[in-house]
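// run 5 | inverse folding | seed 20
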């Protein structure tokens, strides 16, 4: 489970923002809203992280930062031209030459090898702990030039000091460890490109531990527009090849009562056409005739199901856009243990404006973003604010007591 995100000098975030979501073991949890950061840990993390704030406060920036880290781990080796995609520094003179920094912390199997991983997959008990991944990118004249440092560290049982898994410096030199051995892969250190991560590069050439980590990163699913828009044509093509997802989608559409009784695909010269059968209507309706809300739900559905099926992370920007306020808490509840859907402790990160959802969230699940008069975003959990457990989050938030609301006048 991902429990910490750190971001510095990235879009509207100038100064280091460290979002720590760890929940004390004494906090009551009758609905199964929290999961241990690793198997057997006392410290927990919310399965749902809802980010609130005014327009342009930094909500999307936090989600983009998480997407950028995962994309660098997973796909950076695929980039064939210099530079980086999806990165901008903070827009002041000083930040033009300050590095952009990211870090995430999460739990999992430590001292990871293919043998230990296979034992865990077979149901054996193996050592667990926490990981910290750090990525620093050099900025020159406001342009991202190269990775200046990268590191993966671990804490067995989540205790003691961070132990090196590997470290990379500005010259591309790599220090390995028994867990992440360079034996048989030394030649890769000489060809490591300045905008490719160690994990992505080594996984491409079958480094066993790098492959495991990159495969885990493939369980993170992002719907963040407009940087990577999951457009209509893409969702229709995806659904056409996923009959199991379509079956489950039809069940949900029927259950939430949008009037859709069935879906089918019709082949055309321009690709598959998605048609909907509605109660009381004689002719099937095409995709573009469906309501904005129905289409928004359908486009979101594969991200949510993919995370729930793999125990991964679904990240949805503007999740409340065109979604009825009664549907939104229902979709959030899919990630709680009581729903029976989230057997693998998947996590949902979302941004939204719907204040009514706050009545359905605990303070541990709420993150606030706000921007100061210098255009700098600041993000914090409600756990960092003096908030009573029985407080009315809806009223307090709209009153401005938590911050993150627009100032009018």
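// decoded
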């Amino acid at each position: 489970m991902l429990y910490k995100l750190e971001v510095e000098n990235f879009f509207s975030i100038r100064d280091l923002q460290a979002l720590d979501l760890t929940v004390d073991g004494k906090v009551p949890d009758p609905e199964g809203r929290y999961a241990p950061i690793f198997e057997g840990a006392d410290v927990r993390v919310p399965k749902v992280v809802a980010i609130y704030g005014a327009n342009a406060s930094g909500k999307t920036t936090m989600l983009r930062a998480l997407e950028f880290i995962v994309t660098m781990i997973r796909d950076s080796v695929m980039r064939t031209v210099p530079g980086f995609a999806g990165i901008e520094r903070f827009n002041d003179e000083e930040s033009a030459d300050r590095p952009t920094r990211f870090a995430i912390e999460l739990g999992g199997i430590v001292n990871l090898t293919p043998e230990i991983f296979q034992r865990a997959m077979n149901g054996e008990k193996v050592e667990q702990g926490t990981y910290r991944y750090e990525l620093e990118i050099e900025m020159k004249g406001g342009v991202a030039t190269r990775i200046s440092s990268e590191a993966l560290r671990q804490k067995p049982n989540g205790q003691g000091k961070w132990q090196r898994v590997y470290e990379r410096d500005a010259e591309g030199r790599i220090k390995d460890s028994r867990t992440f051995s360079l034996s048989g892969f030394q030649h890769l250190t000489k060809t490591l490109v300045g905008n490719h991560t160690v994990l992505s590069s080594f996984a491409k050439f079958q480094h066993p531990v790098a492959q495991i980590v990159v495969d885990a990163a493939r369980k993170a699913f992002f719907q963040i527009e407009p940087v990577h828009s999951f457009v209509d044509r893409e969702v229709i093509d995806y659904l056409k090849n996923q009959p199991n997802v379509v079956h489950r989608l039809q069940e949900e559409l029927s259950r939430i009562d949008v009037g859709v009784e069935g879906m089918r695909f019709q082949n055309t010269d321009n690709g598959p056409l998605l048609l909907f059968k509605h109660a009381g209507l004689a002719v099937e309706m095409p995709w573009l005739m469906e309501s904005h809300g129905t289409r928004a739900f359908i486009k979101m559905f594969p991200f949510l199901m993919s995370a729930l099926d793999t125990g991964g992370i679904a990240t949805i920007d503007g999740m409340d856009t065109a979604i009825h306020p009664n549907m939104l808490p229902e979709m959030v509840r899919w990630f709680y243990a009581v729903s029976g859907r989230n057997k693998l402790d998947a996590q949902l990160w979302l941004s939204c404006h719907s204040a009514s959802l706050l009545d359905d969230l605990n303070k541990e699940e709420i993150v606030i973003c706000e921007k100061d008069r210098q255009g700098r975003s600041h993000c914090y959990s409600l756990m960092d604010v003096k908030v009573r457990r029985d407080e009315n989050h809806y009223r307090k938030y709209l009153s401005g007591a938590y911050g993150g609301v627009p100032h009018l006048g």
